Amino acid sequence: MIDTILNYLASDQVMGALRAILFLLVGFTLARVVSRLVQRLMLRRFTAHHAMIFRRLAFYLILGLFAASALRELGFNLAVLLGAAGVLSVAIGFASQTSASNLISGLFLIGERSFGAGDVIKVGNTTGEVLSVDLLSVKLRTFDNLFVRIPNETLIKSEVTTLTRFPIRRFDLQVGVAYKEDIERVRKVLMDVADRNPVCLDEPKPLFIFNGFGDSSLNIQFSVWARRENFLDLRNSMQIEIKKAFDAEGIEIPFPHMTLYTGSVTDPFPVRMVGPGSGE
């Protein structure tokens, strides 16, 4: 009985199984060590999220190689398995062309590093904070707390604006004043408002642009800068303060209106109010 057990334990099947288990244990340990080392190296050039993706790729690649060796020790023919895997890969590839396109697009996004987790981006009509950049899609959280998943292929083909790429942002305010107003006086009032605003930056300096003569107003663009985190405060406060300053200085912000003429360049079209009971 003991001899039978010893002979069984010494058989090729048992020894092959033991070697397979050893391969898996060594592979798992080595995969963990190497993947952590890869993550540390990637953190020097990539974001933490991208480094985590590279770590997972390294882990599963090494573990897969040792798993293949373990299967060979168990007597599996790797050539047959690879052939079957090739046929299966072709079938899956035809069935999941979109996923493959998203996967390749995800690699381009990771390599390009145009945005990362924590950035605020705008894609079409969607604006939100990037939660993660994965191999198949990018996850966003909008400002009204909605979860949005955008396929990587869509991002590659679309115009993507990264709102938090640079430390400062510019706010362009379009304002119109009446034709009777003095442009230099309007400019001075706007500059004074910018000087008094605590979140408006002195450098770059505020920019005053006279855009031209509109249908009912003199059109002006007033551009001011703020740090990225203060942009919304600047946008709200500047518009409120400019309205108050214009009211205090008697500067008119006109609304669209139309004057009718009967043919003469000076005499307006006569208008007569008709009340009820006038017989007209």
Can you walk me through this structure?
It is a single chain. The protein has 8 helices and 8 strands. By secondary structure, the protein is an alpha+beta fold. The chain folds into 3 domains: 84 residues, Helix Hairpins (Orthogonal Bundle); 51 residues, SH3 type barrels (Roll); 82 residues, Alpha-Beta Plaits. A 5-stranded antiparallel β-sheet has the order 4-3-2-1-5. α2 packs antiparallel against α3. The mean pLDDT is 81. One of its GO terms (molecular function) is mechanosensitive monoatomic ion channel activity. Homoheptamer. InterPro entries: LSM_dom_sf, MS_channel_1st, MS_channel_C, MscS_archaea/bacteria_type, MscS_beta-dom_sf, MscS_channel_2nd, MscS_channel_C_sf, MscS_channel_TM-2. Pfam families: MS_channel_1st (PF21088), MS_channel_2nd (PF00924), MS_channel_3rd (PF21082). Belongs to the MscS (TC 1.A.23) family.
Q: What's the count of strands?
A: 8
Radius of gyration over C-alpha positions, nearest whole angstrom: 35 Å
Uncertain residue segments:
none
Overall SS class: alpha+beta
CATH topology of the largest domain, by name, is: Helix Hairpins
Helix fraction?
40-55%
The spatial strand order of the largest sheet comes to: 4-3-2-1-5
Largest sheet: 5 strands, antiparallel
- Please tell me the CATH architecture of the largest domain by its name: Orthogonal Bundle
Mean pLDDT across every amino acid position:
81
Distance between the termini: 126 Å
SSE run: HHHHHEEEEHEEHEEH
Beta-strand residue percentage: 15-25%
The CATH top-level class label of the largest domain = Mainly Alpha
Count of helices? 8
GO cellular component, one term: plasma membrane
GO molecular function: mechanosensitive monoatomic ion channel activity
Subcellular location: Cell inner membrane; Cell membrane
Keywords: Cell inner membrane, Cell membrane, Ion channel, Ion transport, Membrane, Transmembrane, Transmembrane helix, Transport
